[in-house]
Predict the 3D structure of the following.
Amino acid sequence: MPAFTAAELAERLQGRVVGDPTVTLTGFAPADSAGPGDLTWAETPQHLSRAEAGAAAAILVATDATSRKTLIRVPNARLAFARVLPWFYPEPDFAPGIHPTAVVAASARVDPTAHIGPLCVVGERVQVGPRVVLMAGDHVGDDCTLGEETRLFPGVTLYAGTRVGRRVRLHAGVVVGSDGFGYVLDGGVHRKVPQVGHVVIEDDVELGANVTVDRGALGATVIGRGTKVDNLVQIAHNVVIGQHCLLVSQSGIAGSTRLGDYVTVAGQAGIVGHLRIGDRAVIAAQSGVTHHIPPGGVWLGSPARPAPQMKRLFVLMERLPEMARRLAQLEKELAALKAAPGPADPAVR
């Protein structure tokens, strides 16, 4: 396990130490379970109180708070947390080479620094770049390319012609390049439209477990640089996703839709095909998008509307049962008024 002094971590994080700069830190743990020698972090006063009550040796903070413990003050505690974890818990190294049980085509070009794990299949004319890791049971189809330092976790399938950039991470069960869902009704049967395109995954993309990305019917399905995709997301044929987007679990994007840069699609949201989603738009959880979305702003509901408008509708929907009861009472009172004899009625003369 790596060990650092508080001063060493502060220097790496461009922070400063308040307290003992020589304290040795050998791990990182949540405030409630941290032990002696552990570093923890506190983003709010409540977090800091819990950290002080625990056994952690030092605390990452982003405020001018004081404590009896050693503090490492940084501009952004959450960002520092993300940077520190890999230092304490580095990813395992994989020795270069090809496992004896792997099947690698003679025409494939595998960099000598790459790792090809047990039971992997690497097809014809595949190019595997420097320090690429294929863990157990990965299948890389013909004519695929994998850029340097890309990592495929166990059980990943890349269909033929998939192009993967540098430093990409594909988690277990990811399928890239399967056929898009394209059929045309012909004489009462659904005739398949051949899907002859491919998929391009640009640099620094991460796809969570069991994500599926369909190949283009013609041309490419593209996932832009720096985009991060959560588990169980479906990306259909000829979708183009911009740079640095976030797609959260169980969301789905139908064919030929284009997302701009820095778009967020929250959990279980669905976007129909052939739409344009503008830069930095946010699609809230369980929303159904059926029309183009301009850049910026938060969209909510099904069909999705701007969040302020949809929130007003939600308030009205909550009031509908009471409004219905009041309407029924008013209708009853109105009927009674109509039935009552008036002054000019012959019955009262």
Remarks:
- The first helix runs from residue 6 to 13.
- The two ends are 104 Å apart (CA to CA).
